[in-house]
Write a sequence for this structure.
């Protein structure tokens, strides 16, 4: 992905519901040919943001430009795969995709070829004549993806595309999403609360929390921004003493950072594996009992989220 051409630009995009601000002054540029991931916990404002971008929701203030045009009509340019499935149970898998293609006036001959290809790509060929009501949850999600692509859109919006999928199916969907880019032409926007999905699939990631866009960069640059050191998660028998554990560990000169996250004590330190005995002994000397401990020697996007917010992603 090398294109610098902006496809979607938001300027101070804001959505309020009474006194609640769902999205707060979103400024963002999404480029042609890139896969852009919105990463954040449920309720962070991801879905609200993309719904405003593609014209499904009117902003309270701010504006969206599509290919430089304000209030541009995007219906033909966008394919949307929503988090909540939209399929017709009384139609077959083949008929669902064909029906959506007819709604977009895809020529009949081209529609048959596209429908067959989508069923094949999404591993649904053997279910083409099954009623949608007979499909598993994972198959329905893949069918919904096919329906959003049948008119060959320039912009594809995927809202939590892996929701409810088993790990094997999830990985195959990730590979398919990367193939969807089609060179430098198609822009793909996805929302996710799964750090591995954002990391594996996205060219750039925007981390959003409580309606505010915190940072945008490549996954690699974001992970580097956390700094050096291993991440250690320590669980105490008595979680009420987490604050005491944090202060005990902060007093150790080998500890780079210590904090409480999701009822666990999170520590960053160089060569954590070789220093774990020192840390656990310090905790035990303070009257604290460790029930579980885990070490990650590679930074993740969750580490980035914790670094930015002081909370875990999930």
């Amino acid at each position: 992905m090398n294109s610098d051409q902006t496809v979607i630009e938001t300027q101070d995009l804001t959505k309020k519901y009474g006194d609640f601000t769902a999205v707060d002054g979103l400024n963002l540029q999404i480029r042609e040919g890139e896969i852009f991931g919105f990463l954040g916990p449920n309720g962070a404002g991801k879905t609200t943001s993309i719904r405003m971008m593609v014209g499904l929701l009117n902003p309270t203030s701010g504006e969206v430009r599509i290919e430089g045009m304000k209030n541009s009509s995007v219906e033909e340019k966008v394919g949307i795969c929503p988090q909540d499935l939209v399929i017709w149970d009384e139609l077959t898998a083949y008929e669902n995709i064909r029906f959506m293609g007819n709604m977009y006036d895809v020529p009949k001959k081209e529609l048959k070829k596209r429908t067959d290809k989508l069923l094949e790509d999404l591993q649904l060929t053997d279910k083409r004549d099954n009623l949608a009501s007979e499909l598993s949850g994972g198959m329905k999600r893949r069918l919904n993806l096919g329906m959003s692509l049948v008119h060959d859109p320039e912009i594809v919006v995927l809202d939590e595309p892996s929701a409810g999928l088993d790990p094997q199916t999830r990985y195959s969907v990730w590979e398919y999403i990367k193939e969807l880019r089609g060179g430098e032409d198609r822009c793909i926007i996805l929302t996710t609360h799964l750090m591995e999905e954002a990391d594996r699939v996205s060219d750039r990631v925007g981390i959003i929390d409580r309606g505010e866009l915190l940072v945008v960069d490549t996954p690699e640059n974001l992970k580097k921004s956390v700094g050096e050191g291993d991440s250690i998660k320590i669980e105490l028998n008595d979680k009420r003493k987490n604050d005491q554990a944090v202060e005990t560990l902060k007093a150790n000169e080998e500890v780079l950072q210590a904090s409480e996250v999701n009822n666990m004590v999170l520590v960053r330190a160089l060569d954590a594996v070789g220093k774990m005995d020192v840390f656990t002994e310090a905790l035990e000397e303070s009257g604290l009992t460790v029930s579980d401990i885990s070490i990650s020697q590679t930074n993740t996007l969750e580490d980035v989220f914790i670094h930015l917010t002081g909370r875990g992603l999930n």
The CA atoms of residues 113 and 277 lie 63 Å apart.
